[in-house]
Design brief:
GO molecular function: DNA binding
Number of domains: 2
Number of helices: 10
Distance between the termini: 70 Å
Transmembrane segments: 139-158
Oligomer: single chain
DNA-binding region: 32-51
Structural class: mainly alpha
Keywords: DNA-binding, Membrane, Transmembrane, Transmembrane helix
Protein name: Transcriptional regulator, TetR family
Strand order of the largest sheet: 1-2
């Protein structure tokens, strides 16, 4: 007998939500399948219809919120300068804030930031490879720096309850990227 797809989707989401509630409270090593299924109201066998183990739940969540190249905006090249679509990255972060704030936080998944950067970096490398006069290796380091900074500052912004506006944050990031930190500090 075939199962109803809507029921299956709801069941899987219930298990994910139960896992996520626990993951927000404690480290993944401390979470058990029994806790997840009790919280979601299902039995262990139901859990194993959807997931291999608790790490698979986390992996599926991460995979669902990491953008692929087709979901990312094209990079604007203006007068030879890189126009980073910060507002689009901000929207992406905002859309997935429930997960990003935890995964990129102090008790999150240390590998998640790398997964996120590695999903975005190829698009940036492709857009820039004919525009810059540095080696691919140097470009890789620069992009790692930029993406690390963007992820870090957005995480901090959310942690600080968005004490400055989106527009102000985007302006600040752009100014730092275009003019450097010291030029801002010396104003």
């Amino acid at each position: 007998m075939k199962k109803n797809p809507k029921v299956m989707t709801k069941t899987k989401q219930d298990l994910i939500d139960a896992f996520w509630t626990l993951y927000c409270e404690k480290r993944i090593e401390k979470i058990t399948v029994k806790e997840i299924t009790q919280k979601a109201g299902y039995n262990r066998s139901t859990f194993y219809e959807y997931f291999i183990d608790i790490y698979d739940v986390l992996e599926q969540i991460e995979t669902s919120i990491i953008p692929n190249v087709n979901e990312l905006p094209p990079i604007a090249m203006l007068e030879g300068n890189l126009g980073m679509p910060l507002d689009i990255f901000m929207e992406l972060y905002e859309k997935n804030h429930k997960y990003y704030s935890v995964l990129l936080g102090d008790n999150g998944d240390a590998a998640f930031a790398s997964k996120l950067k590695n999903s975005i970096k190829p698009m940036l490398q492709e857009a820039l490879k004919y525009q810059v006069k540095i080696s691919e290796k140097e470009l890789d380091f620069i992009l790692e720096y930029i993406l690390s900074a963007m992820i870090g500052i957005m995480s901090y912004w959310f942690k600080q309850d968005k004490v400055i506006s989106n527009e102000k944050l985007i302006s600040l990031i752009n100014e730092i990227m275009e003019n450097g930190v010291m030029s801002i500090l010396s104003k």
